[in-house]
Specification:
Layout (H helix, E strand, L loop, with lengths): L4 H37 L11 H17 L1 H23 L6 H31 L3 H10 L2 H7 L5 H12 L3 H29 L6 H34 L3
Helix pairs in contact: 1-3, 1-9, 3-4, 3-6, 3-9, 4-5, 5-8, 6-7, 8-9
Length: about 240
């Protein structure tokens, strides 16, 4: 079956218009608030990038320190976003049409499997990016439907679900990567613009009021991005799965 990206996006838009209140509520709790907490309470680190070996080692040490210092917040944000994505996918893909409360209970029961598969994908992504980026992009394209398969076909086991997702995305990596790039690069430019405006309006970005406003705005952009990505993945999965 030929995948129509335009039709999938149109379906995602229809889902948003139909269920926007529920989707926005889930997105606010699981996408907006965790991202806002990360923006407001994350411990920053000062990194000076140079050209010699010592500067490279200092950069690596600084990055490691940043990850260690912010590990609890980063883990909380990642798990919250995973739960939010899984709840939305359950609401959209479960034929029983569960309520939000029922979807939360379903996701809670399956959370260990969802966390495990997400960690596996992230490890593969990091390894792929370390191998000259292209393998990492390939992982992004092929793994995009793993969560929709796990949610939409709960009878499948861990490995079988991954195999099913790979089958559905075979020959469609370029199409999917193009769409993901449109979503995420667009969001990146909006966030960069907001941060640039904040620096220009607040003497280098040190005004706490302006920083708070930017944190709210960028968290809203992150929420919109996560919702768009989830709805489009659900629409693409339904189109491909319905044809075998």
């Amino acid at each position: 079956m030929r995948l129509s990206i335009a039709a999938a996006c149109a379906e995602a838009s229809h889902i948003w218009k139909r269920d926007r209140d529920v989707i926005a509520a889930v997105g606010g709790v699981f996408f907006f608030l965790p991202n806002l907490a990360l923006s407001l309470f994350m411990r920053a680190t000062s990194v000076t990038v140079g050209g010699d070996t010592q500067d490279d080692q200092a950069l690596l040490a600084s990055m490691q320190s940043f990850l260690v210092d912010n590990a609890p917040l980063l883990a909380f944000q990642m798990v919250a976003e995973l739960v939010g994505v899984a709840v939305l996918l359950t609401l959209l893909l479960d034929p029983a049409r569960p309520t939000v409360g029922e979807a939360l209970r379903i996701v809670a029961r399956r959370l260990p499997v969802l966390v495990a598969v997400t960690m596996l994908i992230n490890i593969a992504l990091v390894c792929g990016m370390a191998l000259f980026i292209v393998p990492g992009l390939y992982v992004i394209g092929r793994a995009a439907l793993v969560l929709p398969v796990l949610i939409g076909e709960p009878e499948r086991r861990f490995g079988d679900a991954i195999g099913r997702a790979l089958d559905l995305t075979r020959g469609r990596v370029i199409q999917l990567l193009s769409l993901w790039a449109l979503i995420f690069i667009g969001a990146y430019f909006v966030q960069t613009l907001l941060q640039g405006l904040a620096r220009a309006a607040s003497s280098g970005g040190s005004n706490p009021v302006t920083l708070g406003m930017v944190a709210v705005a960028t968290s809203a952009v992150s929420m919109a991005t996560a919702i768009a990505y989830t709805l489009v993945r659900a629409a693409i999965y339904r189109r491909l799965a319905s044809n075998g």
